[in-house]
Amino acid sequence: MTPDLIYGLTGVAVFGIGLVGALSAQDRLRRVLALKLCSVGAGFLLVVGAWREPPAAPDPVPHALVITGIVVMVSATAVALALIRRLQTLEATDER
Amino acid sequence: MSVEISPMILSVFVPLFGAIAAFVLPRAAALIGFATLVLTSGAVAWLARDVLAAGAVGLPLGGWGAPLGIDLRADGLSVAMLALTSVVGFLVSIAALDSLKGPEQARQRQYFWPLWLLLLTGMNGVYLSTDIFNLYVMIEVIALAAVGLTVLSGSRAALQAGLDYMYASIFGALLFLMGVGFVYLQLGRLDFAGLTGAAPTGALIAALALIFVGLALKTALFPLHFWLPAAHANATAPASALLSGLVVKAALYVVLRLAQYMPFPSENLLTLVGLMGAGAVIWGGVQALRAERLKLLVAWSTVAQIGLIFVAFARAGEVGLSESWKAAALLILAHGIAKAAMFLAAGRIKDEIGHDVIRDLDRTPIRPTLAQFTFALAAISLIGLPPSLGFIGKWSLMEGAMAAGYWHWVGVTMAGTLLSVAYFSRVFAGFLRFDRVRAPVGEHQGWALADAAPLTLALMAIGLGLLAAPVLSFIEIGYPFGVAP
Amino acid sequence: MMDAPLLPLFILLTSLLAAPILFALPERAARLRTAINLGMAALKVALVGWLSIKVSQGVIYDLRFEMLPGLEFKLQADPLAILFIALSAVLWLITTIYSVGYLEHGPHRARFFGFFSLCVAATVGIALSGNLFTFLLFYELLTLATYPLVIHRGTAEALRAGRIYLIYTLAGGLVLLLGTLGLWVLAGTTDFVPGGVLADVVAENRLAAQLLFVVLIGALGVKAALVPFHRWLPIAMVAPAPVSALLHAVAVVKAGAFGIMRVVYEVFGIETAQTLGMTAPLAALAGVTIIYGSIRAITQDDIKKRLAYSTVSQVSYITLGVALASPIAAVGALAHLIHQGLMKITMFMAAGNLAEGLGVKRVSQMDGVGRAMPGTMLAFTLAALGMIGLPPLAGFVSKWYLAQGGLQADQVWVIALLLGSSLLNAIYFLPMLHRAWFRDAAPEGTGAPGRPRIGWMLAAPPVTTAVLVLVAGSFANAPFSPLEWTRFIVAIEYQE
Amino acid sequence: MTDPLVIFDLLLALAIVALAAASLSVRDLFSMIVLFIIFGLLSALAWVRLSAPDVALAEAAIGTGVTGALLLKTLHHLRFASGTLGQKAAYGVTPVAPVPMAVIMTNAVFCGLITLGLVVAFLGAPAAGPGFDPLVAEAMPQSGVEHPVTGVLLNFRSYDTLMEVVVLLAAVVAVWQIERGLSEAPAPAMGEVWQGFARLALPAIVVVGTYLLWVGAEAPGGAFQGGAVLAAVGLLLLLTRAYVPQPAHRGIARGAFVLGTAAFALVALLVASGGRVAFEYPLDHAKTLILLIEGMVTISIAVTLAALFHGREPVALAKGDRNDT
Asked: Nearest to residue D227, comparing CAs of A75, B141, A50?
C-alpha cells in the first residue's frame, strides 16, 4: 500500500462520483459542483502519476499541468455560474 | 537586434493581440477585428507558402523541443483548417458588421469581437498543436469564447442553450483531461510523437475512450449531440455561423489527428464510431424534417452532417485512416464553408421576414431573393450535389467504402442524402410558393450588401469542388497517415 | 477558318454565363433581357453550326480538367454529341422566342430566364460530356435548374408536382452517382469510348457488370420516363408551356434517353451489353412503356397530360432502337431523338397557345379551335400526324427504320408493337384533330369568339417547328439532315 | 508492519470520497457548498502527502477558495432571485422536477461500470512509470529558476501557461458579456466584526501573496497561488463594500485583465531573435523575464478572479432602465 495507489483509487472514485452527479443532477448549481469533482479526480490521477517513492523528487510537469487545470476549471465554473445567475434573473422577471 | 518570428506563432498571437486590443478599446472593436483578421490571414498565407515549399514545418517553442517543451507543427491538413478558419471567419465578420449594426446591438457588437478573436486564437492553436495537454487548454479557450458567442443575444432561450452547451463542454473537456492523465500514467509523455506505436495497454485504451467520448461530446456526435441544436439555433446568425461552421470542426480535427497517432485498437470500435455516425445521419435528418424553425432545421442538419463525417472517418476505406481521412477532411472543409453560408443566409431571411417559422415562410410578400438563393446554393453543397465540394467529399467517401466492399455504409450515405433533400425541399417550398400571399410579390426584394458575404461563401462551397484536385494534393503535404512519408 | 480548341467550352458558356446576368437583371429590364436571351441563343446556334462542320471534317475536340486524382472533367465533341447539341441549340432559340412572348407580363421573369439558361447549359453539358462523371455533373445540374421552372407558378399544385419531380430525379441522380462510382471502381475509368470500356470486366465479373447495367439504366430511366419511373412526367406538366415544351422535347427526358445511348454504346458497348443478356429485357421494358404510355394517354382529358403520356410512349422508341442492337434500329432511334423533339415541342407550344389565346386546356373544350387559331392548329396537326407515323412526316422515318431494325435483329414483335402503337397514337390524337377542325365551337363554351390575341412570338415558333417536322421527313436523305448524321454516328458506334 | 502514515492516507482517502458523495447527496445547497470546501481542503492535504505542495496551494486557494466563494455568491443571488433568501434551507433553487430514483440508479450503475473500467486501467498502468523528471533535471540549469514547477510553468511549457491565462481572460470577457447592469440582489454584506477583521487581515494577505509570488522561483508558490491570495484581498474589499465597482473604472479593469496576457505574449514574441524561437528566453535574462511575467500575470489573476467573483460589468444605467437591457 503506497500513497499513489490509495490516492489514485481515490481520484478515480471522486471522478466516478462526479460523473454520476453530472448525469443525474437537475439542480444547476449541483451539476457545476459535480463537474468540479470530476476535475479534482482528474487532478488526483496526474498528481499520483507524478509521485515517486521518496526520497526521489516527483515529476514537476504533471504538477504544472494540474495547476493549469485548476485555473481553467475556475474560469469555466465562473462562466457557468454567471450563466446560471443571469438565467435565474430572467426567469424571475418573466414570472413576475 | 531583429525579431525573427514564424508565421505559426503569428497565426496564434495575432488574433490574441487583436482580442486584447478589441477588449480594451471597445469603440474601435470592429476596426481592430478586421485588421486582425487580415493580418491573421496574411500569417496563414505565409505559412501556406512555407508548407508548400518545404512540406511540414515545425517550431519547438522555447527551444526545448518535445517531449519536455511544446512543438508547433503545420502540414497540409493544418494549413487547410487554418485557411478554412480565416476565410470563413473573415466573411462571417463582414456579415456580422451588418447584422450587429443596430443601436440596440451596441453591447453585442462590443463583445462579439473580443470573443470571436479569442475563439480564433483557440482554433488556430488547436490546428498547430502537437501536444495533448496543450490541446486541452486550447479546447477550453474555444469553449469559453464559444459559449460567450452563443449567449450574445442575451435571450432566455439562448442562455438556457448556452448553459447546456457549457455543461457539455466542461464535461467533454474533463473526460479529455482524464484521458490525458491516463496517457501520462502509461507513457510519461504527452506529445504526439510519444503516442506513436505505443502498445494498446489498458490505460491507453481507457485514455482513448475518454478522449474520444470527450471530443464526441464537443463535436456533438450522436447520441451526444443533445446540446447542439438549441445552442446553434438560438445564437445570433454570425455566431451560429461560426459555431456550426468552425467550432465543431476543431474537435473533429482533433479526433482525426489523434486517430493518426492513437489508432483504434480494434476494427469493431471503428465500426461503432461508424454506427454512431450513421445514427446521427438518420436521427439528425429526421429531426430536421420535423423542425419548425429554419435555424433549428439548419442546426439539426449540422448534427446529421457531423455524423456523415464520422462515417467517412470510420469507413471510407479498407486500410483505415490511410484512405478515409481524406474523405473526412474534404467533408469537414465543405461543411465548414457551406454551413456558415447557410446560417448567415438563414439569419438574413429571418431579419428580412421577421421570423423563421418554416410553415409561414410563404405567407409574406417579402422574399429576400438573394439570401434564399444563397441558402439554396449552400444546400446543394450540403446535400452533396455536383460540382460542390460536398459532392467531392461524398464521392470520396462512397468511392472508398465501395472499393472496400462496405455496401451498407454506401447505403447510409445515400439515405442521408435523400433525407437532406427531403428536409431542405421543405424550405424551398416555402421560398417558392406564392399563392398564399395576397399582396403582389416582387422579385429582388431585400437585396442588400449583407448578402455578399454569405453568397461568396456559398459560391465557394460550390466552386471549390472544381478545385478538389489541388485541395486534395495540398492537404496531403507532409502528412503521412500511413502513406510513405 | 481559325481553329478553336475551346469551341465546346464556348458553347457551354454561352448559356452558363448568360444565367447569372439574367438573374441579376432587374425585373423591368425586359428589353435587355430579351436581347441577351436571343443574342446568346443565336450565338449558340452559330457556334454549334461551326462545331458540326469541324467535327464532320474529322476535327477532334477533347477538353480535360482533373477534378480528383485520375478523375477528369471532360468535354468532347463527337458526332453523337453534335446531334443532341444541335437539337438543343435550335430548339432553345425557338423556345426562347416563345417564352418571351408567353411570359410577357408574368412575374419572376428574371428568375425564369436565368434557370432557363442554366437548363440549356446543363443539356449542352450532357451532350458534350466525355465521360460518365462529367455527365453526372450536368445531369444533376439539369435537375436543379428545371425544378424552379417546374414550380414557376408557385401554386400548391405546382409545388406538389415539383416535390415529386425532385424526389424522382434526385433519387435517380443518386442511383446514377452509385452507378458512376461502381463503374469507376470496376473499370478504373468512366470515359465514353465507342465499343465500351467494360469488356475485360465482364469476363471476370459478369454479375457485377449486369448489376451495373441495371443500376445505370434504372437511374437514367427515371429521366427517360421508363415505366415504372414515369410517374413524375405527367405531373410535371403543371409547369408553364415553354417549360413543358423544353422538358419533353429536349431537356429532361432526352437527357435520360441520350444517357441510355451513351451507356449502352460507349460504356458497355453494344456487343458487351448483348453478351450480358441485358438488351432483350431493356427492349421489352421499352415496349411495355410504349404501349402503357399510349393507353394512358387515351383517357386523359387534359391536353397537356395527354401529351405527357404520349411523351412517355414516344421517348421509349429511342430506348427500343438502342436495345434492339441492330444498326438500322439505331439509326431510327437517333433520328427519333430529333424527330420526337421537333414534334413534341410543336404540340406543347400549340397547346400553350390554345390555353393562352382561348383558355382551352381540355380535349373536350377543343371543338372548333381550328377555325379560331388556324396556324397553331395546323402546326399541331402536322406534328400529331407525324407522331402517328404518316409519311412523309418525320415520325414516319423513325418508325420505318425501327421496324427495319426489328427485322434485321429477327425481332418480328417489334413490327407488331409499332403498328399497335401507331394505332393507339391515332386513337388519342385523331379525336383531337376531329374536334378542332370538324366540330363547331360550343356556343357558350370557353372558346372565346372572334380572333384570340396572341403575338407573333407565340404564333410563329410552333409553325416553324412544324415546318421542320415536314422538312426532316421529306428530305431525310439530304446531307446534314438528322437521318444522314445519324448514319454517320451509327457507323462509329457499331465500329463499322 | 504498517506504516502509520498509510493508515492516515487511508482515512484521508475515505474522508475525501465520503465528502464528495455527501456534497452531491446533501439536499441543502448551502451545506453542499460547505461540504465541498472541506472536500477541497482535504484533497489539497492529500496532494501535500503526494509531495505536490504547489498543486495543494493552488487547489486550496483557487480550486477551493475562489470556487467556494463563487458558489456561495451564486447561491445568494439565486435565493434572492427565487425569493427564498430568508428561508433557512432551500433545497434547490432551480425549479425542476425531482429526478426519478430509477434514473439515478441507472446512471449510478452506468458510471459505476465506467469507474470500474478506469480502476482496472489505473491498476494496470505502470506505477511510478516513465516521466519527465530526467528531462526536467537536465534542463533546469538553463531555465533561469530553481523551482522545477515554476520552470515547467513559465519556461518549458510556458505556451500552455500563456493559454491558461487566455482562458481566464476569455472567462472574464464572457462573464461581463453575460451579466449586465446592476444586480437587484443586495451584495452579501459582512458584519461589523468581520469588517474590522478584514481591515486587519488585508495587509497581511497582501504580504503573503507577494511572498508566494516571490518564492515561486525557488520554492512552492508562484503567480497563480500568489494571484489567488491577492484576489482574496479583492474579495474582501468587495464584500466589505470598501470598494464598489464604478462604470468609470472599467477601462482600468480591462487593462488589468489583459495585462498578464499581453506582457506574457509580448515577451514570448520579442525574445525570438538571434536564432532563438518564441518563448526562448536568453539565459542571462531568464530569471528577470520570468519574474516580470509572473508579476504581471499575478496582477491580472488577482484582478480577474476578483472580477469573476463580482460577476457583472459595472454599467451605468440610465434612469428607469431595467438591468436586462
From this structure: A75
Nearest residue of D to residue A54, measured between CA atoms: D51
List of chain B residues whose C-beta atoms are within 8 Å of the C-beta of residue A79: 144, 147-148, 166
Predicted-complex ipTM score: 0.90
Residue B311 identity: V
Taking CB atoms and an 8 Å limit, are D129 and B201 in contact across chains? no
**Residue type present at position D290:** I
Are B61 and D279 an interchain contact pair (Cβ–Cβ within 8 Å)?
yes
Distance, CA of C160 to CA of C234 (rounded, Å): 13
Helix (H, G, I), strand (E, B) or coil at B75: coil
Residues of D in Cβ contact (< 8 Å) with B139: none
Find the CB nearest D173 among B140, B148, B154: B148
CA distance D317 to D247: 9
Q: Please tell me if residue C159 touches chain B, with a CB cutoff of 8 Å.
A: yes
B395 and C65: CB-CB below 8 Å?
A: no
Measured between beta carbons, which residues in chain A are less than 8 angstroms from residue D69?
A: none
B289 pLDDT above the threshold of 80: yes
Q: Which of B1, B115, B207 sits opposite D177 (nearest CB)?
A: B115
Cα–Cα dist D235/D310, whole Å: 8
Confidence grade of residue B485 (pLDDT, cut at 50, 70, 90)? very low
Touching, A vs C (3+ Cβ pairs under 8 A): no
D86 contact partners, CB below 8 Å, separation of at least 6: none
- B touches which chains (3+ CB pairs under 8 A)? A, C, D
What span, in angstroms and rounded, lies between the C-alpha atoms of D245 and C6?
Answer: 72
Burial call C188-227: b when 16+ CB within 10 Å, e when fewer? ebbbbebbbbbeebbeeeeeebeebbbbbbbbbbbbbbbb
pLDDT in tens, C106-152: 778 888 899 999 999 999 999 999 999 999 999 999 999 999 898 88
CATH number of the domain that residue A17 is part of: 1.10.287.3510
Q: What domain count does chain A have?
A: 1
pLDDT tens figures, C250-261: 788 899 999 999
- Give residue-wise pLDDT tens across range B94-147: 998 888 887 778 888 889 999 999 999 999 999 999 999 999 999 999 999 999
Q: Quick check: B357 pLDDT over 80?
A: yes
The average confidence (pLDDT) of chain D is: 81
Q: What is the model's pTM?
A: 0.92
Q: Which residues of A touch B143 (CB under 8 A)?
A: 76
* Contacting subunits of C (3+ beta carbon pairs below 8 A): B
Question: For D79, which residue in chain A has the nearest alpha carbon?
Answer: A88
* Closest CA relative to residue B188, chosen from A24, D80, D125: D125
Task: Give DSSP secondary structure letters for B307-372.
Answer: HHHHHHHHHS-TTTHHHHHHHHHHHHHHHHHHHHHHHHHHHHHHHHHS--BGGGGGGSS--BHHHH
Q: Do chains D and A touch (3 or more CB pairs under 8 A)?
A: yes
- By Cβ distance, the residue of B143, B147, B171 closest to A35 is B171
Beta-carbon contacts of residue C312 (< 8 Å; ≥ 6 apart): C225, C227, C230, C233, C234, C289, C292, C293, C296, C297
